[in-house]
Extracellular small neutral protease (Streptomyces ramulosus), 196 residues
Amino acid sequence: MINRIVAVAALVPAMLGATAANVPAQSAPKTSAVVTLTYDASGAGKWADAIKKSAENWNNAVHNVHLQPASSAASADFVYKETNGWPQSTLGPIFPGGRGEVQLGQEAVNEGYDLARVATHETGHILGLPDDYEGPCSEIMSGHGPGPSCTNDKPDATEAAQVDQNYARGASGAQLKDRQVVVDIWRGAPALAPSH
């Protein structure tokens, strides 16, 4: 009888048409070996404090991956660069030995967007999160959607859970795939371009 009750309870959300978006965020299982990703910010200019804050925000939110500065640019798993264009990032998840890049573009700053929010959002792409411009300010991956008045620079619980899931198998979870670059043109629709 108990098995039948459990089975029916498991089917109720499916029968009601519940979607993954309606399910509350749950923490991904902690991996036995935390994946450490190193980054280089030597080419990031005025973005240095925002990058430090971004790493702190992600490290405080997730369990299965840890971001830390690399000992050298050549040894970094991903790099931050200051540019004159729009922000863009390699879409991950990036694993050790990966070659990701985050371009922190001045045009977003010119439009009034918060540096720490932009850096944390772009780092979210490195960690494997796509854009969700329809989301609220509380979602870091909503990016420019809520407008420049949104200065939240912390990922929410759902985003943190997805990143933990991306790294739940440790470094053995790395899957080779074609890398894409997400270009966050913050006054229009994002462009997706293949990375070479």
Summary: Residues 2-15 form the longest helix (14 residues). The first strand starts at residue 35 and ends at 43.
